[in-house]
User: Fold this.
Amino acid sequence: MRLALAVLCIAIGACNRLPTATSFDGANATIAAGLVSHGERLTHVLGCTGCHDVQLQGMLLTKDEPQYGPLYASNLSIELRGYSNSQIDGMIRHGVHPDRKTLWGMPSEIFQHLSDPDLAGLMAYLRSLKPVGSKLPPPQFSKLDKEEIASGKYKPAAQLVRETANQLPADLGEPYALGRYITEVTCAECHGPKLEGNPDAPMGKIPDLVVAGAYSRAEFERLMTQGIAVGNRKINPVMAGVARTRFSRFTPHERDALYSYLHKRAQHS
Assistant:
């Protein structure tokens, strides 16, 4: 299997680092169709469709915030066709754009932890896209954007990658590796690289994921698939939406692994 994965990643140019054993279910697909299907699921799980639209043809991100931008998420069905696999890897995992050099708003600080097998699936799906729509404009910064960049409030993706490279959630051993990995490339986007939360987040208070220790497995399943918290209490609407559109696409095995890791982490806190 290790040899098969090595051959696969060489074939699509995604071997900038050694493959890791920990990946989402489906990453071990050995036929092209299976790899493309795995990558398509990851575009939902990782939130690509949330910014780039369900067809990955991009969208205006600042539509409801005219004080910013205008800032667009790129039309991936067109934009990526002109770049090599190595350049696409640079954008996804390193926050570096081959032309503009700097990427803004791309969560490369969490995608830097994406495994080679998962990147291979994602790349295979992106390469399978048929062009839809048109190319969208590059970032256009408003006065407020420039002020927030100058103050350090708004940072380029590559800088965030460097700053968080060694900030990781607790390593609880091999039995919890998959759950930990899932938190690194999904949960950490809002809850922070160590899953400690952010009480002052613009979208509302984000808790330390130690709160998962209060959930039974059945309650956790309901939260992850329906966005309904234990006891039907009110939760951040961002989490409710993410659960329904992204985390509901985890496999049952992945949700088991995520629950086991978070529950064990809560016990160790």
In short: The longest strand covers residues 59-60.
